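Minutes, project huddle
Topic: does the predicted pose make sense with phosphoric acid mono(formamide)ester bound?
PN asked that the exact inputs be recorded in the minutes so nobody has to dig through chat later. Recorded below.
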Amino acid sequence: MSNLEMSTKHLLGIKYITKEDIDLIFQTADNFKEVINRPIKKVPSLRDITVANLFFENSTRTRISFELAEKRLSADTVNFSAASSSLKKGETLLDTVNNILSMKVDMIVMRHPAPGAHAFLSKHVDVNIINAGDGTHEHPTQALLDAFSMREKLGDLKGKKVVIVGDILHSRVALSNIFCLKKLGAEVMVCGPPTLIPKHIQELGVELSYNINEALEWCDIANVLRIQLERQNIKYIPSLREYSMYYGIRKSMLDNLKKDILIMHPGPINRGVELSSDVADSEQSIILDQVENGVAVRMAVLYLLAGKRNLAKN
Ligand code: CP
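Predicted holo structure (tokens), as shared on screen:
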């Protein structure tokens, strides 16, 4: 049985919310998914609420998905892009945000390269903050839409086996997925080259394999990550070609399994590196379902947190 409201005012990370919060987000997202498949996709739930989307890092899916979610809920939206802002003139994050808030903004969706930027901000401003990715730390709405998509295909995730493959070291998607899936009772494994697996990862209660075929045999679902070359200031792998030889997933590897597993990827995909095109576009791939579900899940998060708008900070 779920609570009727979120336990927190912000979504800073999956680490800081409860299983009941996740269940509530999923139930709410189920309803919104039904709404956005109607001919009239809009509801008035966030009318008179203004949301600022602050993106200090590049994004395609998350940014468009949040903006669509806000529009479907009838919120007013403003978009900020770091590249064309006065950050270039030396303004601090807090000054930038306080200036935006003085224009009567109610909620902030933010992507920032610094881990903890959202937690810092939440201590200094009095609006709801939703983390759309903070450096290598967390990407909570990605984990929620991933788990929602798994649940849509396989039902209750308790006991389901999920392997997260690739650059675990630099991945905020990996950490948020681990927290989310463990809270939902799934079994989680990480798989990748030793240099891209954090040293103490098993303390989070996950299994570890360096062998992709063994990991694929074990799992019901493989959530495959991108190699984040932009966050690697030293060489963690000899080359993308070698990475692809040892950890890339090809159709023949799926065909050799005794079962059909689901293939997921948060995007953007490096075709031919972590997934071959025939895997990315196969019937087993639910990559575009993930993107579709992102809008309903983000509508649910915005809607539920808007309900906590006037409560004291927590
Ligand atoms: N999955 C994801 O965060 O994609 P974007 O970087 O395009 O937002």
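Observations noted during the meeting:
- The first strand starts at residue 50 and ends at 55.
- The two ends are 23 Å apart (CA to CA).
No decisions taken; revisit at the next huddle.
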